[in-house]
Design goal:
Largest sheet: 7 strands, mixed
Number of helices: 12
Strand content: 15-25%
Number of domains: 2
CATH superfamily of the largest domain: Vaccinia Virus protein VP39
Order of helices and strands: HEHEHEHEHEHEHHEEEHHHH
Distance between the termini: 61 Å
CATH topology of the largest domain: Rossmann fold
Length: 286
């Protein structure tokens, strides 16, 4: 297949199949020729490894992954892209496209049936509007995967890769850090896409943890507490927690103080260890 990073080639292929970009699906295809090879390399695509890709676009990243890994399985939602991919990826025999919604398909079944005992990584150029839901599903399902390398909005990358307890941290930061070790790999300018989005992007890699950083009695309660604590960022953690969990504010303050923290502490200043301790204190008093 011709160079899929060439805008002329892309336009020709899409026109031939009568394809038009969908704003609802957040479609922005990568046209910068240096980006996809770098994602594949730094994402860990290599011999002996399988890759689960989320969304193929016209197959630019898919092809780079297939050149390096033993097998690539891509879950693509847009049925209009299937004939396009049949053409653009015709030279590869180690790619399988599954038409489905990554938020609904049985991921455990796909990994087992398609990869068996093979080590698996995840790579994706995610539409901005589903970044957090997709990342959290991939992490929360505790899939047998090594890492998740994704392109996200630059602003989201800062939040996702922030240190827990830092100014940029939020509930999603805590959730991501609970399940993985996150790092930003590189920035990608808005001009690297067609059509160009209104913001810049960044590629991040989440290396899935074998052990969680803190042990809590009830993980569901822990994440409910975290979401509540960060729900009112300009107020103290006690306000958000009491409101979100429906607990008496004084009871929450007691738990905070029992955790060795000041009553006026704000959520963004809490480390993972402090959040774990606070969760256990709250759990006793709930």
């Amino acid at each position: 297949m011709s160079n899929l990073s060439d805008i002329g080639v892309i336009k020709s292929v899409l026109q031939r199949h009568g394809f038009t970009f969908s704003k609802a699906l957040g479609q922005n295809f990568i046209v910068n020729p240096s980006v996809c090879p770098r994602i594949a390399e730094e994402g860990g695509a290599r011999e002996g490894v399988g890759v689960l890709e989320v969304g193929a676009g016209i197959g630019v990243l898919t092809a780079e992954l297939a050149k390096r890994a033993d097998k690539v399985v891509c879950v693509e939602l847009d049925t209009r892209l299937l004939p396009v991919l049949d053409e653009t990826l015709a030279d590869f025999d180690n790619i399988k496209i599954i038409n489905g919604d990554i938020l609904k398909v049985d991921l455990h079944k796909i990994l087992e049936e398609e990869f068996g005992d093979m080590p698996v990584i995840v790579c994706a150029n995610l539409p901005y509007y589903i970044t957090s839901p997709v990342i959290m599903r991939l992490l929360e399902e505790r899939l047998n995967i090594e890492s998740i390398t994704v392109m996200v909005q630059k602003e989201a990358a800062v939040r996702l890769c922030a240190d827990v307890g830092s100014r940029d941290s939020g509930a999603v930061t805590v959730a991501v850090d609970f399940y993985s070790d996150a790092q930003k790999l590189f920035d990608v300018s808005r001009g690297s896409f067609m059509p160009a989005p209104n913001v810049d992007s960044a590629v991040i890699r989440l290396d899935v943890r074998k052990e969680v950083p803190v042990r809590v009695t009830d993980e569901k309660f822990f994440f409910s507490m975290v979401r509540s604590a960060f729900s009112q960022r300009r107020k103290t953690a006690s306000n958000g927690i009491s409101s979100g969990l429906g607990m008496n504010k004084q009871t929450v303050i007691t738990a905070i103080e029992n955790a060795g923290l000041p009553a006026t502490v704000r959520a963004e200043s809490l480390t993972m260890e402090q959040l774990g301790t606070l969760c256990e204190e709250l759990y006793k008093l709930r």
